[in-house]
Design a protein that fits this description.
By secondary structure, this protein is α+β, with helices and mostly antiparallel strands. The chain is built from three helices and 16 strands. The relative contact order is 0.14.
């Protein structure tokens, strides 16, 4: 008997930093045209054109029934019906587009859901590391590569997945003082690309001190902060006159 697997990864829950949640990762999306072709391959005696015509009419009728205020049970696969979101003040209140919202419910049919859920096995896959990678920092003040920081002068970082949201204060380029771990964020960014950042080294960095350089970005469509650190510890240089 064939074993069907559904792949999932774990991500930190943005609403609860101490917990993780599973995210399903479908191998790909299947559109209606592919379903029609597969129906034919599985032995349907009618043509693809006939199937396509029936599906088109089915969707048109489903839309008509929903707009007529009815719920639609689509062959036990899914039930569709309209609902309203929002609070009403009292029994005399009425729908107000500024306070309320029409939305479409879609709930899988219970027998269909149980049959499908009983036919699959979840398979955990490791999350792909999408953290920033810092390859080198070029200090334009001293001309050195991954060795120095000249406060008040420009610097370039080269790497991968470097781009960040400049409007988010917890994202960006950070200089971590050693050994106090006091952080200073670079505020003047002139280039913000996935493979290269150009910015002004904060003038307030302490002279003759050592710093770690860290880039923090937020993962797409999540609240997860991902960090990357330059391998070298950099020392501040006096600003050239």
């Amino acid at each position: 008997m064939q074993t069907n697997t559904l792949k999932y990864t774990l991500h930190q829950n943005p609403l609860n930093g101490d917990a993780y949640m599973a995210t399903m990762t479908p191998s790909r999306a299947v559109e209606i045209e592919e379903i029609i072709k597969q129906m034919k391959l599985l032995g349907s005696t009618v043509t693809e054109a006939d199937i396509r015509a029936v599906v088109t009419e089915l969707l048109r009728v489903v839309e008509h029934q929903l707009l007529a205020g009815r719920s639609v049970n689509l062959g036990g696969i899914v039930r569709l019906w309209f609902g309203i979101r929002g609070k009403f003040v009292d029994e005399h209140d009425a729908y107000d587009a500024d306070r309320h919202e029409l939305y479409l419910h879609a709930v899988a049919g219970q027998p269909f859901r149980k049959r499908i859920q009983g036919s699959v096995v979840p398979e955990k896959i490791e999350t792909v590391d999408r953290a920033p990678r810092l390859y080198r920092l070029i200090d334009k003040g001293s001309g050195q590569d991954s060795a120095t920081l000249t406060p008040g002068r420009n610097a370039i970082i080269k790497g991968k997945r470097l781009k960040f949201n400049e409007d988010q204060p917890d994202e960006g380029v950070f200089f971590i003082h050693q050994p106090s771990n006091v952080e200073t964020r670079a505020d003047e960014i002139t280039r913000n690309d996935p493979q290269e950042l150009t910015f002004l080294i904060p003038p307030e960095l302490e002279a003759g001190a050592d710093y770690k350089v860290v880039i923090r970005t937020r993962a797409l469509r999540t609240n997860d902060i991902r960090s990357g650190t330059l391998d070298a510890i950099l020392s501040t240089e006096a600003r050239a006159a």
